[in-house]
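Hey, I was hoping to borrow your eyes for a little while. No rush at all, and the record is pasted right below.
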Amino acid sequence: MPASLDGKLVVAISSRALFDFEAENLIFEQSDDTAYMALQQSLLDTPAVPGVAFPLVKKLLAFNQNGAQPVEVVILSRNDPMSGLRVFRSAKHAGLELERGVFTRGRPAHHYLAPLKANLFLSANEADVREAILLGFPAARVYPLSVQAAETHADEIRIAFDGDAVLFSDEAEQVFQRGGLPAFHAHEHDKAALPLPDGPFRPLLEALHRLQKQAEANPVMKIRTALVTARSAPAHERAIRTLMGWNIEVDEAMFLGGLEKGPFLREFQPDFFFDDQTGHCESGARFGPTGQVHYGVTDHPAADHRS
């Protein structure tokens, strides 16, 4: 009987999101993939330094205990297969039990998310992230230079989500862009009892909720979630009602009314923060690992990079 990923929380992650390959990536951008491959080969026996998503992956893999494996982490990278050797060796050196990887040597990698049944894709490659979201997969472009998560809550995964254009659709954001704050509040007041349409990260929140329920009998690792949104009263009601309609609870909700999110994230100390807007991501990256969700009316394409 073939192996199966059914029922698992599957995280697909690029090499550059898991490990700090910024120096190597600079060589690639300044020359070509031949020089990059030669450098990686010369460093084959040198373990890579943990990258921005390393603490999150380490904690997620802690759910795999006593023969049970509810979490699967797969390397999905534009790196070449030879460079992939260093990724696997670095993972083994760091104590990460990773078995699967797909390396495409510069070609788009997002095509493999469907057979992997991925619940999350983390990459430094903006083009792959955009395509993944168009295909319906929760995906975010990591900020490789985000502040690393502190190990102050080693037995708990903390994930913070923006609301509009992340957990929810960008319907309300479109109203705000067209008519400003008064139109936004009027729209949300009138539709307070109507659930917001799904955003790209609802599937991840649901998968985390399932994992949390599965682990209740043997809580080796806890999950704590937070909604961190620029919404304020009265627009808070529709967000909460939407989560209630999904039968999902978040542990914390911050309705900030336009305040900078970074200082609040500093107190929450997330292992990862997901937001669609560049300004919020830049603020969040000063205090913890951050990924930008390229979705919605406020998003604008930028340059492509190796992942």
